[in-house]
Write a structure and sequence with these properties.
EC 2.7.7.18; alpha/beta; 6 strands; nucleotidyltransferase; Rossmann-like_a/b/a_fold; NadD/NMNAT
Length: 194
């Protein structure tokens, strides 16, 4: 069974924090590949700051092209909206029966996990790798971390926010150090996020 890590996100834009985390997971787990699953625009939300699906997909593709174990997936673009993680995983298991998938999520998502669609099935049938996040306020112990399929990894906490990057671009500030060089080139000279 080929082990694949799935890192879901809007990647609006993908930044070096995403790549540092993905690389850490690949180097410190039994994952053979890590797929960035680009989530489409939620039709029920007004997301004027969210770039078009193809722009975000293009940025992830250029960001990971020099990392042989990283891939980009647009699987959710063709699935019914809104996208639910359990439905995407079910689809991927059917399409790739010889692959084993692990879900990668931030520690901040654990608190709301019980509200996810079919969360008990999701946890029972999938490995979940949780990376640490800095919290506002006090950090709570989470019962989910006791589950055999959920493991908290000791990845570096990289505090870079895509929102902050978008705001800096809008304000004409230099974001070059926060982005993979290829993504900086993609955005530089364009009107994206301005």
């Amino acid at each position: 069974m080929k082990k694949i890590g799935l890192f879901f996100g809007s990647f609006n834009p993908i930044h070096i924090g995403h790549l540092i985390l993905a690389n850490y997971i690949l180097e410190n787990s039994d994952m053979e590949e890590l797929w960035f699953v680009v989530s489409p625009q939620n039709p029920f939300k007004n997301k004027k700051s969210l770039l078009k699906d193809h722009n975000r997909l293009d940025m992830v593709q250029v960001a990971v092209k020099n990392y042989p174990k990283m891939r980009v997936s647009n699987v959710e673009f063709s699935l019914p909206k809104p996208s639910y993680t359990i439905d995407t995983l079910t689809y991927l298991h059917e399409k790739h029966p010889d692959y084993s998938f692990a879900l990668i999520m931030g520690e901040d998502n654990l608190d709301g996990l019980s509200k996810w669609k079919n969360s008990e099935t999701l946890i029972k049938n999938n490995q979940i790798i949780v990376y640490p996040r800095n919290f506002e306020g006090e950090k709570k112990d989470n019962d989910y971390l006791q589950h055999e399929n959920i493991s908290l990894i000791n990845a570096p906490v990289v505090e870079i926010s895509a929102t902050e990057i978008r705001n800096m671009i809008k304000d004409g500030k230099n974001v070059r150090p926060m982005l993979p060089p290829e993504v900086f080139e993609y955005l530089d000279g364009s009107s994206l996020y301005k």
